Amino acid sequence: MAHFPVNHPARPLYRVFSGLVGLYILVFGVWGVFETWGQPLFGRGPNWALGLRTNLAFSLVSVVFGIVLMIGASRRSNLGHHMNLAAGAVFLVTSIAMMAVLQTTANFLNFSMSTVIVSMLFGLLLLATGLYDKVGTDEHAEEERRRREHPIAEAGTR
Fold it and tell me: What average pLDDT does the structure give for the chain?
């Protein structure tokens, strides 16, 4: 059974990390939209924004993802937890899929290897932040802290 730490002491730091990732993706998307405006949606031109290759479709999706991640980072509920887990999985799956079709015409998001690497890093970072930013009641957090400090005493009572 998966165990997600509840009310982790570094939760605000993890929310800052996911917010920074969301901010970078939003700025990248806006910059990419300005760079690729008027070109085909799935164009394969030499357009770069913030060091990553892009096209209009990828830039528009990045704007949406950036906004969603920043909303999730700004909430103090489990919404951010679930959004970060889902976004991390999406980033990892997308980067692996785009790496598989990098040198083919199926590369419809105009990825380069640097874009694949950054997407994988962002996916891993978002998964990590999603694992540690779960919010729970104070009683649940106290029970978990007690179990961490005295694991043998808790095991004997089961």
Answer: 87
Return the beta strands (E) in the chain as ranges: 48-49, 52-53
Q: How many CA atoms lie within 13 A of 3 on its CB side?
A: 5
Separation of CA 105 from chain center: 27
Indicate the pLDDT class of residue 24, thresholds 50, 70 and 90. very high
- What are the beta bridge partners of residue 100? none
Of 51, 2, 1, residue with least CA distance to 28: 51
Q: Which sign, positive or negative, has the C-alpha torsion 9, 13, 19, 22?
A: negative
Question: Which amino acid, residue 78?
Answer: N
State residue 75's pLDDT score.
79
Judge contact between 85 and 69, C-beta under 8 A: no
> DSSP label at 53?
E
Task: Please report, as a single letter, which amino acid is at residue 30.
Answer: V
9: amino acid identity, one letter: P
Q: Please, is 34 exposed, middle or buried when counting C-beta atoms within 10 Å of its C-beta (0-12, 13-18, 19+)? A: exposed
pLDDT 10s digits, 132-156: 888 777 777 777 777 777 766 555 5
Helix H or strand E segment including 59: helix 56-74
- pLDDT score recorded for residue 1: 40
